[in-house]
Structures are given as structure tokens and as C-alpha cells.
Amino acid sequence: MSKKSKKHEAAVIPTKALTPASLMRDAKQLNASMLTVRYPTADMLAEVRELLLARGDVSDLVARGFFIDDAMFERVSVLSTMLAPESETQADADDERSDRTENAERAREELLEIRERLALLGDAAGLKASMFSVDTRRHDLLVGSMQQVVRRARRAKLADQATVRVLLAQATKVINAEMAARLEGSELAKVREESTDTVYRLKRLLYDQMRHISKQGLAAYPGDIRRALWYRLDRFIAQRKPSAPEIAPDAPELNDDAVV
Asked: What is the rounded CA–CA span in Å between residue 238 and residue 38?
């Protein structure tokens, strides 16, 4: 066994009281290079439920000299509890992204409609079309360039000032809302970045401990179909890259496409 493997296995052996606080401390001590566990949290939790069915084997495994104890199963259980809210958070984030996309599309349509009406009034006043042009390549560029159009329209001598005031008020309201949403999105992104780092650290601890238990169980009960379902971590094996080299079923690959 290589030095790296020995150090890696030593890291998964619980030596102190297992609480969310103690596991969080363990997670924070992980080297950043160890954090890449790219299996979906939901899949990992599904594997945990199956692996915990094997907890009753601990006495037999210990008696036979396998490198395992009940604290390892407890570690898996506590870590899975800590990660459980992540699945709900991810679902909420997906819904939130969908809402933001719909809101941005509505804002885009409204701003372009206002721009068109202002452009027609500008054309009637003999103004250059460039005064009312906007950049539609990205949503933030559209909002920024629409601010310029609003400022120019306020200074221009356009007919039907009652309509112009309404249009400018509508445009300003939409622009302010989009700028506020962008700022809120930036703040949320920062919070989520920190949260994502924590999730990866907890997943690393969980994955390592599950792998260790899996190896012990598969070695102890070869040919036992029921226990194979508990110990094999099938969801991890199934997500290997097609181009990945063949590896033993008790050693799922670490480097798949990222999902948290």
C-alpha cells in the first residue's frame, strides 16, 4: 500500500465523539485538493440508507479482525444528516433560477417595448436613431444601455410629453428592479459559494468513510447477494465516465462531472 493510501485510510478512522460540530471541524481541516467528490448529494444519501442496513454486521466484522467499528457507521449517519438539507436547498435553488430567468425575460420584453416607443418619438423629432439604441447581447448590457436611453430621452425635446413621462417612469422602475435583483443575486452567490465549499468538505468525509466500510464488507462477505447490495455503492460505480479504466466494484471513481 502506498504512503498516500495509508494516510488516506487513517483519515477516515473516528477517534473522538461524533457530533456535527466535531465533524465540521474535521471537514474544515481537509486540504482543498481532497475536496473533489462529484456525485450528487441525493445519490450519496441513497447509498447511505443502504449501507446503514449493514450496521448489524459490526460485531461479526470486528470479531473477524476487519478494520471497522460502529463509530464508522455512526459517522456516516451523522454526516448524512448534515447533508440532507442540501438536496432541498438544491431544489429551491433550481426553482429560484427558473423564476429569475422568467423575470428577466419579462423585464427584457418591457424594456425593448419602451425603447421602441421612445425611438419612434425620437424619429418623429428628427433625432438620431443611435440615441435610442440598446445592447441586447446580455441582460445586464441591455439594462445598462437602457439607462442611457432614459437619460437621453429626458433631455430630448420629444412630442407627447405625457406619454414620455409614463414610459420613462416604467423604464426606471424596471431598471431599478433589475439592478436590485442583480445585487441580491451577487450576494446570494457569495453565500452559496461558501456553503458549497462546506458541502464538498462534508461529502469528502462521507465518501471516504463509505468507501472504507464498503471495502471491509465486500471482503468479508463475498458471494452474499443481499450484503452486496448494502456494501457495493452501485450508484457511484454507475456514474463512472465511459472512458474510465476498469476498476474493482469496491473502489468507485472520484472524478466524475460535478453535481452538489
From this structure: 13
Task: Check: pTM over 0.70? Answer yes or no.
Answer: no
57-112: pLDDT as tens digits: 999 999 999 999 999 999 999 999 988 876 555 555 555 666 677 888 888 899 89
**Cα–Cα dist 38/25, whole Å:** 21
Q: If phi over 0 gives left and psi between -120 and 50 gives alpha, with beta otherwise, what is residue 184? A: alpha
Contact 71, 184 (CB under 8 A): no
